[in-house]
């Protein structure tokens, strides 16, 4: 039995995570950490969840009072980083679904996890289909090196480009030499029209109400194009990946960035 604490239980992702954990026979939800409602029961502040577990506003107090093996954190990069550090101090293994971590953040957290021999996972995207899209993109980039990425998310998302788009570009860069795409004399008549530049790849971010999480990777070649696309139509699409991460993190002794590291 894996004892789990969820941070951010009232958000869209958090609610689905609560339902997923409560529906798994090998998982037990012991508590949640929220920015308010300290001392309440989750079922009283989120009646649709029907989860009779305590709510804490302080992560350290939660770990002191509750049994916890894994922390599922679905908050923000700044809060998520603080929660990870606290989790390491209490020998709790964090699974974090927040994007926006810097390379320096990941390096620092990896060092701590390795020193403590504690598993940890930061996943820019928990959707299995999105992970496969990244892997297929890396494979395609060996043969078609002109690449552009278009990612679409809801208009409440704070970071752009998305962590998924950046991770995709990083994976492609492992098999593709940096190159300038487009015409050598290309000029933007409106600044930013060509999107962000990652080693010559262009990344375009769309933010609209009604979107959830969508990404296209477009490849161009002589006389042909290839388009790979993934769509998360609702947030239940992320839950199989969250479950996989919780199961796998129990066997890790360092930090893993991206579920692609766990899927063949």
Automatic annotation (TrEMBL):
<dbReference type="InterPro" id="IPR000846">
    <property type="entry name" value="DapB_N"/>
</dbReference>
<keyword id="KW-0028">Amino-acid biosynthesis</keyword>
<keyword id="KW-0220">Diaminopimelate biosynthesis</keyword>
<keyword id="KW-0521">NADP</keyword>
<dbReference type="InterPro" id="IPR036291">
    <property type="entry name" value="NAD(P)-bd_dom_sf"/>
</dbReference>
<comment type="subunit">
    <text>Homotetramer.</text>
</comment>
<dbReference type="InterPro" id="IPR022663">
    <property type="entry name" value="DapB_C"/>
</dbReference>
<comment type="function">
    <text>Catalyzes the conversion of 4-hydroxy-tetrahydrodipicolinate (HTPA) to tetrahydrodipicolinate.</text>
</comment>
<feature type="binding site">
    <location>
        <begin position="163"/>
        <end position="164"/>
    </location>
    <ligand>
        <name>(S)-2,3,4,5-tetrahydrodipicolinate</name>
    </ligand>
</feature>
<feature type="binding site">
    <location>
        <begin position="97"/>
        <end position="99"/>
    </location>
    <ligand>
        <name>NAD(+)</name>
    </ligand>
</feature>
<dbReference type="Pfam" id="PF01113">
    <property type="entry name" value="DapB_N"/>
</dbReference>
<feature type="binding site">
    <location>
        <position position="36"/>
    </location>
    <ligand>
        <name>NADP(+)</name>
    </ligand>
</feature>
<keyword id="KW-0457">Lysine biosynthesis</keyword>
<dbReference type="GO" id="GO:0050661">
    <property type="term" value="F:NADP binding"/>
</dbReference>
<feature type="domain" description="Dihydrodipicolinate reductase N-terminal">
    <location>
        <begin position="2"/>
        <end position="126"/>
    </location>
</feature>
<keyword id="KW-0560">Oxidoreductase</keyword>
<feature type="binding site">
    <location>
        <begin position="8"/>
        <end position="13"/>
    </location>
    <ligand>
        <name>NAD(+)</name>
    </ligand>
</feature>
<feature type="domain" description="Dihydrodipicolinate reductase C-terminal">
    <location>
        <begin position="129"/>
        <end position="262"/>
    </location>
</feature>
<dbReference type="GO" id="GO:0005829">
    <property type="term" value="C:cytosol"/>
</dbReference>
<feature type="active site" description="Proton donor/acceptor">
    <location>
        <position position="153"/>
    </location>
</feature>
<dbReference type="GO" id="GO:0019877">
    <property type="term" value="P:diaminopimelate biosynthetic process"/>
</dbReference>
<dbReference type="GO" id="GO:0016726">
    <property type="term" value="F:oxidoreductase activity, acting on CH or CH2 groups, NAD or NADP as acceptor"/>
</dbReference>
<protein>
    <recommendedName>
        <fullName>4-hydroxy-tetrahydrodipicolinate reductase</fullName>
        <ecNumber>1.17.1.8</ecNumber>
    </recommendedName>
</protein>
<dbReference type="GO" id="GO:0051287">
    <property type="term" value="F:NAD binding"/>
</dbReference>
<comment type="pathway">
    <text>Amino-acid biosynthesis; L-lysine biosynthesis via DAP pathway; (S)-tetrahydrodipicolinate from L-aspartate: step 4/4.</text>
</comment>
<keyword id="KW-0963">Cytoplasm</keyword>
<dbReference type="InterPro" id="IPR023940">
    <property type="entry name" value="DHDPR_bac"/>
</dbReference>
<dbReference type="InterPro" id="IPR022664">
    <property type="entry name" value="DapB_N_CS"/>
</dbReference>
<feature type="binding site">
    <location>
        <position position="154"/>
    </location>
    <ligand>
        <name>(S)-2,3,4,5-tetrahydrodipicolinate</name>
    </ligand>
</feature>
<dbReference type="GO" id="GO:0009089">
    <property type="term" value="P:lysine biosynthetic process via diaminopimelate"/>
</dbReference>
<feature type="active site" description="Proton donor">
    <location>
        <position position="157"/>
    </location>
</feature>
<dbReference type="Pfam" id="PF05173">
    <property type="entry name" value="DapB_C"/>
</dbReference>
<keyword id="KW-0520">NAD</keyword>
<comment type="similarity">
    <text>Belongs to the DapB family.</text>
</comment>
<dbReference type="GO" id="GO:0008839">
    <property type="term" value="F:4-hydroxy-tetrahydrodipicolinate reductase"/>
</dbReference>
<feature type="binding site">
    <location>
        <begin position="123"/>
        <end position="126"/>
    </location>
    <ligand>
        <name>NAD(+)</name>
    </ligand>
</feature>
């Amino acid at each position: 039995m894996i004892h789990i604490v969820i941070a951010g239980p009232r958000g869209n992702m958090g609610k689905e995570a609560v339902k997923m954990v409560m529906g798994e026979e090998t998982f037990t939800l012991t508590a949640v950490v929220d920015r308010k409602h300290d001392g309440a029961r989750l079922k009283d502040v989120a009646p649709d969840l029907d989860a009779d577990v305590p709510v804490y506003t302080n992560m350290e107090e939660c770990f002191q009072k509750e049994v916890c093996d894994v922390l599922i954190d679905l908050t923000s990069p700044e809060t998520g980083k603080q929660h990870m550090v606290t989790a390491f101090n209490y020998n709790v293994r964090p699974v974090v679904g927040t994007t926006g971590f810097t390379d320096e953040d990941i390096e620092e957290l990896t060092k701590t996890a390795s020193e403590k021999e504690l598993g940890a996972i930061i996943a820019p995207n928990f959707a299995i289909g999105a992970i496969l899209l990244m892997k297929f993109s890396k494979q395609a980039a060996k043969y078609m090196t002109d690449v552009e990425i278009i990612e679409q998310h809801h208009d409440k998302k704070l970071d752009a480009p998305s962590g998924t788009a950046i991770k995709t570009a990083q994976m492609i860069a492992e098999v593709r030499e940096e190159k300038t795409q487009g015409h050598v004399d290309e000029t933007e008549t409106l600044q930013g029209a060509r999107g962000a530049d990652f080693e010559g790849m262009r990344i375009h971010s769309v933010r609209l109400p009604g979107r959830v999480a969508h990404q296209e990777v477009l490849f161009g070649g002589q006389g042909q194009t290839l388009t790979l696309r993934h769509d998360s139509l609702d947030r239940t699409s992320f839950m199989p990946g969250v479950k996989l991460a919780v199961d796998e993190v129990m066997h890790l002794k360092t930090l893993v960035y991206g579920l692609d590291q766990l899927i063949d």
